[in-house]
Structures are given as structure tokens and as C-alpha cells.
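User: Can you help me understand a structure? I only have the sequence.
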Amino acid sequence: MTIECKICGVSDSKILNFIINHQYPPKFIGFIVNYTKSKRFVEINKLKSLIDIDKKKSKFVAVLVKPEEEILEKIQYLKFDYYQIYNCTPEEIKDIKKKYNKKIISAITVESKLDLNNYKEFLPFSEIILFDSKGYEKSLGFDHNLLKNIPNNFKKMVAGNIKIGDILNFKDKKYIIDVSGALEDCSGKKNINKINKFLIEVSKT
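Assistant: Let's start by predicting it. Here is the structure, written out as C-alpha cells:
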């Protein structure tokens, strides 16, 4: 079974069109909607035009860190299939899901084994649980072996400085892999050659 994947932090129309029209497009494409500290942040007016296209086989994900109602109101009619939410309580995310009728990826940030069980509070209303590092815009990693005892009865996404060469480590695991920094060049811009290599490698799993 081929690994499902997400390319995150897309901010350029040329890159987005390349990804969507690739022979092996990712299941998910993420956009940084409100986290201005990130070099991948997309201002709202640019975001509106950027994602107003045919998504084809991919799902669009709004990446949101502790979103305020103002930004949620601005994006509610954009072509997002999922909201990926950081730094909110279960109650806050539940309310967002109810009000805006979006599928939810609840992000659990992991530094040690103690952080893992937090996912249980988010399961009832999340389509996917994302296990990520605490690095946010810094592309930090965490020990993915910590996840080995997490049950397989729900959909899991895993991020945290995953490199193209790490893909085979996930071949027999039921994870959606979420990659961003590994697909960028030295300037921090997404690199078409790296994206192409990544998608081809994923297709081989």
C-alpha cells in the first residue's frame, strides 16, 4: 500500500500547480494561514487567489495556530477541506468544527513520551491526529519511535523534520507523512526537483 503524504507550506502558484498536476500528487497540500512567524505564511488576499483552482486529486489544508474568529470568518468560504489546528483546547476545536463544518486535523506537539497521550482528548471530533514536533516554523524533529505503541484504530499523520531519505522508515506504518522543510532550497523556497523526487519516492512504497 502506497504511503499517503502531505506537502505543507506551499505559498507559490507555480509550485502549487506543479504539485497538483504531478503524476503522483499528494493526498494533502497545506497552507500556513495565520502563523506570521513562518516563512511559509500566506497573506489572506494572496491565499484567496492561490487556492482558487482545481484541486484535482489533492485535499487542501488550512494550517492554523490558535486561530481567532476573525481569520476563521475570512477563510470559511475558501477551498479548504481540512483545518489543521495547533494550540487549541479540545473544546475550542470542537466549536470550530461545528461552526465551520470542516474536517479536522488536530495537531499534538511531541517532545517526550509524556506528550503522546494528549491525542485521546481530540479523537472524538478529529478525522486525523497529527503528531508533530514543538518546533513549528523551525522544522525541528522528534523521535518517531515514540509512536510505535500508539494504536492503529484512527488516522495518524506524522511530521517533524522528515527527510526524503526517511520515507522507507514509514513504509510498513499506517501514517500519513507530512513534509515541508525537506522540500526547500537554501533560500527557504519550495524546490520543484526535491518535490518531484519526494513524490516519486512515495509512489514506490
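Now, to help you interpret it: The longest helix spans residues 192-203. The beta strands are 4-7, 28-32, 59-65, 82-86, 103-109, 128-132, 156-158, 175-179. Let me know which part you'd like to focus on.
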